[in-house]
Amino acid sequence: MKKIARITGKILLLLFIVLVFLIGGIFIYNKIMLASEEELIEKPIGQYVEVDGHKMNIYTEGEGSHTLLFLSGSGTAAPVLDFKSLYSLLSSDYKIVVIEKFGYGFSDVVDSERSFETILRQDREALTKAGIEGPYILCPHSMSGIEAIMWAQDYPDEVEAIVGLDMALPRAYDNWDWDSTMKKERLAAFARELGIVRFFYSDSQLPEELTDEEKKIYRALAASKAVNTCIINEGLAIPDAVTEIDSNPKPDIPMLMFVSDGNETGVENWIDIQRDYISDLTNAEVIELDCGHYVHNYKQDIIAEKLVEFIESL
Length: 314
Known about the structure:
314 residues, alpha/beta, Rossmann fold, 2 domains, eight-stranded mixed β-sheet, globular
C-alpha cells in the first residue's frame, strides 16, 4: 500500500510540474504575442474622441436618411469587427455607427464606476463629439438592450426605433445568479492575464466574414482586454439599471426583436420574455431565429432583409 501511495504521489507531482510548465509556457507565449501585436491595434478602426479624459472609439460607414447605431453585448472584445457581418450588408443604404464603450475594442479601459446612466451619458457625448446626430435606430446586442431601453425612456427624441439583436430585457435578470456570474468573470479575467483566453479566439471561433488581418486584430484585442474592469463593473450595475427602467413607463416606440433559441443566454424563458415585453406595444414584432446568441453572425442575411423592410415601414 505504501508503495502504491508513493507511486501515486510521484505521478501527481509530475502532473503538477507539467501543468506549471504548460501554464508558464502559455504565459510567456502570450506576453511575446502581445508585444508583437501592439502595432496591429495601435490605430483604431474608426476615430477616437475624448470623453471624461479618455479615448473612446467610434466607427462610421455609409450614408443614408436613417442612422443605425450598434451597441455591443457584455464582453464582446471587438464590437466594430463583431458587427461587420451584418452592417456590411446595410451600409449602402444607411449610415452605420458602432460605439466601442470604455473597455471594449480600441477604447480605453477605465477604472471607474460603470452605472448605465454613466455609460449612456458617455455614449451620447462621444456621438456629439464625433458629429453624429440622431435620431438613431438603436441596434443593441444582449446586455446593451438595457441601455437602449433607458435611452428611449430618457431621450425619446433621439431614438427612432430599436432593433434587438437578441437583446436582454429587464425580466431576463429577475432570477440571475450574480454571484456565479461575477466568479466566472473574475476567473475569465485571470485566464486573460495567464494568456489562456487567446486560445478561445481561434479563426474558427471568429466571424467568417472577417479577413485574416481582421481576425488577427480581433484576437489581439481579446487577448489584451477581454473581461476587464469595465466589463465586470458593468455587470455589477445591471440591477440598479433594471430598477431605474422599471420605475419609468415602457417606451412605446417601433421595435423589431431578432431572438436566438435562448440556449446560450442562461435564461430558460428567454423567448417568452421577448414576446411578453412587446405584447402591449403599438408597433413591435419578434422574429425567432434558430441559432446562437450572436444572431448577427449566424443569420445576418435574414436579419438584414427584415431590418430593411422594417425601416422602410417607419
